[in-house]
Structure formats: structure tokens, C-alpha cells
Amino acid sequence: MGKRIGYARVSTDDQNLDLQRDALALAGCSVVYEETMSGKSADRPELGHCLKALRSGDTLVVWRLDRLGRSLPDLVGIVSRLEREGAAFESINERIETTSAAGKLIFHVFAALAEFERNLIRERTRAGLAAARVRGRKGGRKPALAELQIREIKALLKDPEIQVASVAARYGVSRTTLYRYLSKNIHER
Question: Domain Resolvase/invertase-type recombinase catalytic, which positions (predicted)?
Fold first, then answer.
């Protein structure tokens, strides 16, 4: 039988890990990786160390599902990785574990819901873009410079005494943006 390794996370410094520590200790975790980091952050170093420490036969234990994944698709990805590597997963609060057939079924229902959610978002995005195109709108950012501004910039830059950096600052854009607009207009003619 493998080790039970815990992962505990709180989002801010003023939150306390004690509740999670106690629950993970009661669940038989010999090692607990802890971090204070927003769940939205993709860079969670302690989670990375925890996942590297897991071996085939080990079980990753968390207090609640939201302590592990940033989103349902992220959670599914992490647990799928564990499964591929021969490790199990357990969430104490939700009573989900992937060591039994019933636990795997529940988790895969979550995975199916996550896939369904991704497909719905994709369909809504496509429908919204199509509806916008029908109304004559195109996606993307609004242009940083209007046609009139581009003409003014060209006129200003004909004077060798005027520096590109000062023109860019005057119009509130970077020199790179200025050059991109100028080269774009040259190629369009």
C-alpha cells in the first residue's frame, strides 16, 4: 500500500491552514504540502512538488475539491494525470475517491460535466461571434489609432527634427505600435 500525501491551500495570508492540516492528519497523510496562493494562479509551486512526490500506489488527499483545482477542467486534468501515473485521489469533504469503482464513476461524471461545460462555452462563443458578424461587427480590439491620427503622424514624421518616441508618447502608443501602423499603411497602398 502506498503513501497518503496531502495538499492544503489557502488563498490569502490571513486565512489559516489548521482545519485542513487536522483533516489531512486524521485521513492518515504522512506528508502534507502547504501553500498560500490564489486558486486562480496557474503557478502553484507546492502543488508541483506534491505531484512530483507521488508514486504509483500513492493517494493524493485534499480537504475539498476547490483546494486542488482552479476550475473543474483543471481538476479533471490533475486527477487524470494521477490516474495515468497509477496514483489515486481522495477529497475528504466531498467523499470522492478514485480507488473504488463507485468513486471513479463519480469522478468521471464530474469530468463529463466539465467537458459538457467547455463545449457549451465554445458553442456560445461561436454563436455570439456569428451574430456580431451578421450585424457588421468584427472581433478584436479597437484600433489604437484612427485614420486621421495616422495621417497626422505621417506628416509629423516627415520633419527629421521630430523623434518617433515623442510622437508615440503624444498619441499614447508605443513606438512598436506606431511602426506597425506606419508599415501597415505603406503595404495597403
Answer: 3-136
Residue 56 near residue 2 (C-beta atoms within 8 A): yes
Q: Which of 11, 91, 100, 174 is catalytic?
A: 11
Q: Which pLDDT belongs to residue 68?
A: 87
Other C-beta atoms within 10 Å of 80: how many? 15
11 an active-site residue? yes
Q: What is the pTM of this model?
A: 0.60
Q: Is pLDDT above 60 for 69?
A: yes
The amino acid occupying position 146 is A
Q: Phi-psi bin for 28: left (phi > 0), alpha (psi -120 to 50), beta?
A: left
Q: What is the dihedral of CA 86, 30, 12, 41, to 10 degrees?
A: -20
Q: How far apart are CA 175 and CA 172, in angstroms?
A: 10
Confidence of residue 186 (pLDDT cuts 50, 70, 90): low
Q: What is the CATH number of domain 4-112?
A: 3.40.50.1390
Q: State which of 66-75, 105-114, 159-168 shows the largest mean pLDDT.
A: 159-168
